[in-house]
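USER:
Try writing one entry.

ASSISTANT:
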Amino acid sequence: MADTGKKANRDLLSSEVRDYDIQQYDIQSILCEMKNSGGFESRNLAYGVDILRSMISEQNCTKFLSFVGSLVSTGVRGIIRDMLKNNMFNVVITTCGAIDHDIARTYDRYYAGDFHMDDGMLLEKNIHRLGNVLVPMENYGPLIEEKVQKCLNDIYKEGRRDVATYEITSYIGSTLDESSFLYWAHKNKIPVIVPGIVDGAVGSQVWLFHQQHKDLKIDILKDQSKLSDLVFEAKKSGAFMIGGGISKHHTLWWNQFRGGLDYAVYITTADEWDGSLSGALVAEAISWGKVTTKASQTTIHGEASILLPFIYAALHASTKNKQE
C-alpha cells in the first residue's frame, strides 16, 4: 500500500513549479516559461496557445471563431481582421455590435478616453463612451444608417427578398476596405453569422428598411441551415471563443449536434459562481455534450484586449516558422 501511495504521489507531483528565467525575449520563449511556472492563468494561456496551434494546423477541422462586439471598438479589430485574412478560421459567430463598429471604424475614427469620465458632459458633447473608448455620435449612428441603408437598397434592387445574416454581412463586407474584418471574411468566403442581428445599429436599420419594404425578410433559419451543413460535414471541429454571451453559446449549441467540439479555447472575465453562460468554464459544456470528453480544452481568465496580441503573435510566429 505504501508503494502504491508513493507512485500516486509521483504521478501527481511530476511537474515541478519553476521560477521564470527569461533569457530570450521572443513570445515563444516566454510562453514556454509560462508552461513551467505553475502559476495560475499563465499556464492556461500557454496551454490555450498550444491548443489553438493544433486546431489551426488540423486540416480536417472546421474552425469556429466567436467574439463579442465591444472588442471591435478597440485595436483588437486588427487582430480579428488578420486572423480572417490569414484563413485561420472557417466560420465566425458574433454580435450585431461587431458589425456596427466594423462599419463605423472603416469610415471614421474612435478615440481613447477614460473609464471615469463625466458621462453627462459627454452626452452634452454628443460623444458616446464604451468603457474607455470614445465614439463621436456622428461617427456611429448616422454613419451606420447611411451605409447600411445603401447596402439594403442594393440587395433589394438585386431582387433578393429572403436573406440570411451571413449574406447581409458578406454584402456589407464587399463594400468596405481592407481594414475591415468583414471585408476579409467576404473575400475569403468565411460566413459571419449574427444570431442577435436586431440587437444593434445595423439591426435597427434592417427593421427601418423593412417598414417600407415589407417583402424583404431576414431568414435566420437560413443561418441555422448554414451552421447545420458546417457542423455535420465536419470531421473535427474546434472553437476559439472570445467572451461569452450569445456568440459563445451559439458556437457550443451547434457543435453538440456532432458530439461536441474537439478543440475549445475560451477567454472570459466572468465568474462561474452565478451560473451564467459567460462565467461557465469550457469543461462545463462537456456535461451537455457540447465539448467532447477527450477534447483539448481550456478556459483562460483574463481581459481579451490584453491577451489577444500575445496569442496572435504566438500563432503567427508558428505559422511563419512552418512556412520557412
About this structure: The CA atoms of residues 65 and 296 lie 16 Å apart. The first strand starts at residue 61 and ends at 67.
